Amino acid sequence: MSSSPTAPADLDRTDPAGAVAAAAARVSNWGRWGPDDVRGTMNFLGPEQRRAAAALVRTGESFSLSQSFDMDGPQKGWRRRTNPVHTMLDTGTDAVAGVQGFPHGIGGADDVISMPLQCSTQWDGLGHIFDHGVAWNGRPADQVVTSLGDGVTGIETVADVVCGRGVLLDVGRAIGDDGELPDGFAITEEHLRHTIEAQGPSSVVRRGDLVMVRTGRLARARREGWGEYAGGDSPGLSFTTADWLHGSEIAAVATDTWGFEVRPNEFDVAFQPLHQVAIPHIGLFLGEMWDLDALADACAADGRWEVFLTAAPLRITGAVGSPVNPVAVR
Fold first, then answer.
1. Which end of the chain is more exposed for a tag (fewer CB within 10 A), N or C?
2. Residue 131 has what DSSP assignment?
3. Could you tell me if residue 65 is inside a domain?
């Protein structure tokens, strides 16, 4: 088994395939929870962790960690992803005009929304990424996700379990200038450990945690405009954090960026190689485009970086990802 690279300089930029294969061999969780497992690292998050997380609530202050779902969102059509289209089916105008056809004066409003499931704050499910045609737990991808959807690891399989201790690692505040990291900044295990040390004991990462990594990229997009926020260059986790993501035994990790890992990727020619290891091999759930700014300010104000976090995906049968409105309670 090859040794683990600890910094981007340790990577052979010309060999992403070799790096992915070596990392997959080191961190694979295939078979860890049996051949039929569909929940991957969510197996680390159980009733014991949830009971402990509930005890973290002190003030009852709550924060939505979701961006808006509307036409003013970040999408520009990359990979056919568009912003949500919200259409009214019935309105107050219809009610006043008396055209709704209801008796005794009752009226109402109804609406519909059309959107890609990963156009704003969302989870990547275990059917979202494959490695050489193989999905989570070593299953052939064509036996998992078909035109009918993900019939094995659909996002609905974790709809009742994504609730526990959330830990915010504000790397942007700990490492960056003015609380933000520049595009292309690769967050290493050393940066994560430095952030934990700087923030104190409440940010120590434990088994089953839902880890949130703030880079400041969303704050910059809101100040300067969306630009290439959705699909372009960005700070993010280094490929070299694969071993930390595996060894920490976290249930999930989420960032305030569109793609979780650093962009451009750390190889001459590559596309999201950390996804290629984290999802199909570690079985790790990835959250993207989370809004962590207000929570980060509150945590920095009193030095408490752990919260009770609930972030259930929508129960969309067979989906490989899901919109989510995470709520952190302090």
1. N
2. B
3. yes
Gap between the Cα atoms of 15 and 280, Å rounded: 20
pLDDT digit string (tens) for 73-115?
Answer: 999 988 889 999 999 999 999 999 999 999 999 999 999 999 9
CB 265 within 8 A of CB 30: no
What stretches of 39-181 show up as alpha helix (H) in DSSP? Answer: 47-54, 92-97, 171-175
Where does 194-277 show beta strands of DSSP type E?
Answer: 210-214, 236-237, 252-255
Residue 48 neighbours by CB under 8 Å, 6+ apart: none
Report how far residue 23's alpha carbon sits from residue 133's, in angstroms, rounded to the nearest whole number.
Answer: 17
Per the structure, how many domains does the chain have?
2
pLDDT digits (tens, 9 = 90+) for 236-285: 999 999 999 999 999 999 999 999 999 999 999 999 999 999 999 999 99
Please give the full DSSP string across 159-198, using - where no structure is assigned: TTT-EEEEEEEEHHHHHSBTTBPPTT-EE-HHHHHHHHHH
By CB atoms closer than 10 A (0-12, 13-18, 19+), residue 300 is middle
Predicted TM-score of the model (pTM): 0.96
Q: Tokens 């650093």 correspond to what residue?
A: 262
pLDDT band at 12 (very low <50, low <70, confident <90, very high): very high
Contact (Cβ atoms closer than 8 angstroms) between residue 274 and residue 261: yes
Q: By mean pLDDT, which of 67-81, 290-304, 312-326 is the weakest?
A: 67-81
Residue 104 is part of which domain span? 85-114
- The answer to whether 272 and 118 have CB atoms below 8 angstroms apart is no
Could you tell me which of 92, 89, 73, 91 has the C-alpha nearest to residue 81? 73
Regarding whether 90 and 181 lie in a shared domain, the answer is no
CA–centroid distance for 303 within its chain: 24
Instruction: Summarize pLDDT for 187-237 with one digit per residue, the tens.
Output: 999 999 999 999 999 999 999 999 999 999 999 999 999 999 999 999 999
Q: What is the CATH number of the domain that holds 264?
A: 3.50.30.50
Structural domain contains residue 93: yes
User: Using the 8-state DSSP alphabet, how is residue 66 labeled?
Assistant: P
Q: Are 100 and 71 in contact (CB under 8 A)?
A: no
